[in-house]
Write a structure and sequence with these properties.
single chain; Rossmann fold; 21% strand
């Protein structure tokens, strides 16, 4: 069922200190662990993974901690977010396997087929038109590589949006609650994501609603099939 809510764009980059600080203080640990669990199920251990829109780098740290043979290149266009990410990576002693870079996901400075897997979590709703970003992900991903994209799902109506904020941000401060509400309003539905992935050239990615507030697009590593 498509949403009755019109999509309202958020800023593409959360690049003020206040926004980065508020986001970094939000507890995404359970969601991040679930995301990494899904990625590990989609691919074999090792190789190099690209994280698009890494924010404060919590997911690359979780992945590198769980999978010691994996290297992660984590990118974001927001310098304040990357500043938090660098501190977290250095504090956890993972600088040798998690490399951060400032760049735009719509213009990736990497060679075709450079990565064994590409992942991105909770960044798509920030992008006015994600198709160019999806095309770049497809370009830098190995032909048989794993893909995992997860983001918020736009609620059906305002009542559902308010319920989700109350359920999942009841202990958050007013700034964090507003960030969550704005993100839900800027999010896409499963049908919209399916159409954008096809437009970007993906023909074998499965998209589904995977929680009361998330959709997931995934493709398992297929290199063992060759």
């Amino acid at each position: 069922m498509e949403s009755q809510l019109e999509r309202i764009l958020e800023p593409e980059w959360m690049d003020t200190f206040e926004e980065a600080d508020a986001y970094d203080r939000m507890d995404h640990s359970a969601v991040n662990r679930a995301f990494v669990e899904t990625l590990l199920a989609l691919r074999s251990d090792g190789g190099t993974v690209l994280d698009v829109g890494t924010g404060p780098a919590h997911i690359p740290i979780e992945l590198a901690t769980r999978s010691r043979a994996t290297r992660v290149v984590a990118i974001d266009a927001a310098r304040h977010m990357l500043a938090y990410g660098r501190r977290h990576v250095e504090r956890t002693g993972l600088s040798d396997r998690v490399r951060l870079a400032c760049c735009d996901g719509k213009r990736l400075p990497f060679a075709d087929g450079a990565f064994d897997a590409v992942m991105t979590n909770s960044i798509v709703h920030h992008i006015p038109d994600p198709v160019p970003c999806f095309r770049e992900m497809r370009r830098v991903l190995k032909r048989d590589g794993a893909l995992l994209i997860r983001d918020l799902h736009r609620p059906h109506d305002r009542d559902e949006l308010d319920r989700l904020v109350e359920t999942h941000a009841q202990d958050a401060d007013p700034t964090q609650r507003q960030l969550f509400a704005d993100s839900l309003h800027a999010a896409f539905t499963v049908g919209e994501v399916e159409r954008m992935l096809r437009a970007a050239g993906f023909t074998d990615v499965v998209v589904s609603k995977t929680s009361d507030r998330h959709w997931t697009a995934e493709r398992a590593d297929r290199s063992a099939e060759r």
